[in-house]
Amino acid sequence: MYRPNFYESTCLRCSETVYQVDRVGPLKDFTFFHSGCFKCVHCGTKLTLKTYFNNQHKQDDKEVYCSSHVPKSGPGHLDQTAVGIRQALNAPRTNKFVNEQIRGTRTEIDGVGVGGGLGSRQSTPNGFGGGGREVSSPSQNDSDYKYGRFDASALHIAHALKQTEVQKAYNKAREKPIDFYLAREEQAHLEMKHRKEEDDLYRKFARKREEEDRKIQNEFQDEWERELQRLTHKFEKELATSRRNRDEANILTLRHEQQKEDLEKNMTLRRSKKKESITRKMLEHERYETAALVDRQSSEMLELISARRSEYMQSESIFLDDEFSEGAVPIEYPLNAPVPAPPAVSKFQIYTDPIEFEDVDRIAISVAQEDQKTFTDLVRQLVGRCTTDIEKARTIFRWITVKNLNAMHFDDDLRGDTPMGLLRGIKYGTESYHVLFKRLCSYAGLHCVVIKGYSKSAGYQPGVKFQDSRFRNSWNAVYVAGAWRFVQCNWGARHLVNAKEAPKQGRGKNDSLRYEYDDHYFLTDPREFIYEFYPLQEEWQLLKRPITLREFENLPFVRSLFFRYGLHFADEGYGAVVFTDDTGAATVRIAMPTDMQSCLIFHYNLKFYDSDEELSYDGVSLKRFVMQSVIGNIVAFRVHAPCSGAFLLDIFANAVTPQEYLTGEPMKFKSVCKFKICCEELQTVMVPLPDCASGEWGPTKATRLFGLIPITHQDPLIFAGRSLDLQFRMSRPLTDFMATLHKNGIEEKKLAKYVTHSTLDDIVTFIINFPEEGQYGLDIYTRELGAPQHHHHHNNNNNNNNNNSSSGEKHLLTHCCKYLINSSKRN
Questions:
Q1: Short-list 613, 522, 616, CA closest to 564
Q2: Which of 45, 87, 228, 678 has its CA 20 to 30 A from that of 136?
């Protein structure tokens, strides 16, 4: 399922373009605002999705108001809008699929604070908790994951429910398969002509490579003979002057043999490097020639299909459906490739879930199990039952992602008319996934182009400049659903084996394979694609307002998982590089969609920017200079740099149910975004956080995993005196509670006597008496009643904590949550 992506929305207030990172909406009649323009039109008061109001008595008024200035109806007045509200009140409530972006999110209190905003609390050495408790709400409000589904509690949009509907803008009129208008034999005949041209091209490549190889061999053979003659002449001359000294002659002989050996090694190495360099240049040229040939042949194949299709349409309807819904007009596929232009509708409006392609995906997987001798056979097997251009592109995309072309074994002698010979371009490196996708699309009658540019691919880090040929990449745009849309087959391919299901006797050899892939890279929306790919030709950004290369470099480094989980940044202005304040503090806040809050688990890693190995500072893990907290739908990562310099913050996520999380199985986190954290100046000395279990701070984890609800302290940061009482309510039976206290410079076992707990009915209370003022970390452990007593490594995820503990009890428990506590007599 996808978050919608509205193209080039304009702000109702200033009429300027609204970008994704600075967007509030959609609101009434799908209007949008900049976060800075989201103010009361009457008094200019800054509004949030919790505090704004619309004029419910005038449908044409799309402005926003504060509670004091929203137009109100007179006493006893009941208009049609009020009736609509009454109907909404009576509508069945659902706890699922609530659009929080339209309904509004409650104002969150970020207990971590933001650096620089000191409140009444005293400052602390590491800066965590030193700031005032700022009230904040997401300023960038992108559309929610379950877009367009509302419950009756969304009262302030009830007036627009009937007037405004989200509909798929693409009419999937079912078209007759290619067999109806183009005979297989005619298409195969053209393919054989193309195959001969391709054979001639490969023979030309082979001759050229042989010529270059002979040229290099002869060149180095001549050089070897000259150098060997020079060494021999020098040796004989030196030997003639030392004939009376046998020892000296032996030394000269040994030296001569060593010089010959060194010469041979040196020339062999130089020959290999030169051959590698020439081969690389030749391969680039071969790829260019192959792409040009495929481009011409694809045009010829499309011309043939278009001609036969047009002839058929003169006497028969190309569409399978005789009748369409009222007012709907089927979209005919264009005969000629249209010019690049932004899509009118988003991917979400074309399909909402990959399950819609279950049937065509199954066909692609089945076809990938066998080998075909011709592209005609291959494509007809793939698209023979496809009735829309989207389905055709989809089954080709899935075939390529399933086939795992990188792992295929090729014989040394491949003829073009053999099954593997069909894909010989992959073996020789002259044909990429993208050229192959273009070729297959032409056989299916689809317009497709290969786009070249830069990508934030393997090895890229935020802040890197695109200055040379590094990070060059290619991808496709295919014309489907009435517009050009991006496809990245190479990045979409994922090939994993399900280790839990090894092949058993009587089962097929492929039954245990999971054909995983990344659906994000199929028909990706331009506004999301631009975060990772920058075309050399501006028009192929498919944006109404293209960005520059410098702007592309400065975009946050986000991965496909960021969009798949429906995440967005909770604050405006994030770039690839985030600068700290003079205390070394910087915060990255990410907003989660409502329906993902209960299953998204986040993790992070902090290291020095220019070092892959250095993960500590003065012997302390850099992770202890980051405070991760979750409040409501916001996960915050507050970094306090321990020294000036550059750091790399990598944020990971995984979607699992609490039951899956508590099984003890290892969890794999995948990166969702990365930032370069730059600390140019540090005026205070930072100390690390207490050595608690890694992961998020605060009670949210306890509620999510164990149903343990905080009564007294909902925030991750607590300001306390010399004692503290923490209370929770159990929503389900739990047992074996345990709490451990941590403070920098004091052993954990010495603090054990200062923490006690008690349980009364469903209330559990932790009592802490602090031995001295300062900053403490409190870890809480528990397990469900009846759960097996074993240690969950991935839940604790903190080896130091286990090593320092004098008690083995917590090895039988699961980490529940943790708090950061600042103890002072002044609190």
A1: 522
A2: 678
Any idea which residue has 């202005």 for tokens?
573
DSSP string, 728-784: EEESS-EEEEEEEEEBTTB-HHHHGGGEEEEEETTEEEEEEE-SSSEEEEEEEEEEE
Please provide the size of the chain in residues: 827
> Cα 112 to chain center, whole Å?
27
Beta bridge mates, 783: 735
**pLDDT of 18:** 75
Nearest 5°: the CA angle 166, 172, 176 is 175
| Residue type for position 171 | N
| pLDDT value of residue 115 | 32
Q: What's residue 826's pLDDT?
A: 84
Distance in angstroms (rounded) separating the CA atoms of residues 545 and 539 = 10
How many C-beta atoms lie closer than 10 Å to residue 456's C-beta?
24
Per-residue three-class SS string for 164-210: CCCCCCCCCCCECCHHHCCCHHHHHHHHHHHHHHHHHHHHHHHHHHH
SS3 600: strand
**pLDDT (0 to 100) of residue 318:** 83
Nearest to 460 by CA among 674, 640, 657: 674
Beta-strand relationship, 814-823 and 717-720: parallel
Q: Tokens 């992770």 — which residue?
A: 623
Instruction: List, for the chain, all residue ranges whose pLDDT scores fall below the cut of 50.
Output: 1-7, 74-125, 130-169, 323-328, 414, 416, 419, 495-513, 790-808, 810-811
**Residue 675 — φ and ψ, nearest 5°?**
-135, 145
pLDDT the model gives residue 686? 83
> Any idea what the Cα angle at residue 171 is, between residues 167 and 173, rounded to 5°?
150
Q: Residue 631 CA to chain centroid, in angstroms?
A: 23
- CA angle 374/378/379 to nearest 5° reads 115
CB burial of residue 492 (10 Å; 0-12, 13-18, 19+): buried
SS3 category, 252: helix
Q: Which residues contact 455 (CB under 8 A, 6 or more apart)?
A: 471, 472, 473, 475, 532, 533, 534
Q: What is the structure's pLDDT at 124?
A: 47
Coil vs helix vs strand at 460: coil
CA 246 to chain centre: 74
Residue 296 near residue 288 (C-beta atoms within 8 A)? no
Cα–Cα distance, 189 to 183 (Å, whole number): 10
Q: What pLDDT is recorded for position 151?
A: 31
Q: Answer yes or no: are the C-beta atoms of 722 and 779 closer than 8 Å.
A: no
Residues in contact with 512: Cβ distance below 8 Å, sequence separation at least 6, in sequence order: 497, 498, 501, 502, 503
Q: Is 617 helix (H, G, I), strand (E, B) or coil?
A: strand
> Which two tokens mark 89?
């009140």
pLDDT digits (tens, 9 = 90+) for 204-259: 998 999 999 999 999 989 989 898 889 888 888 887 776 667 778 888 888 888 98
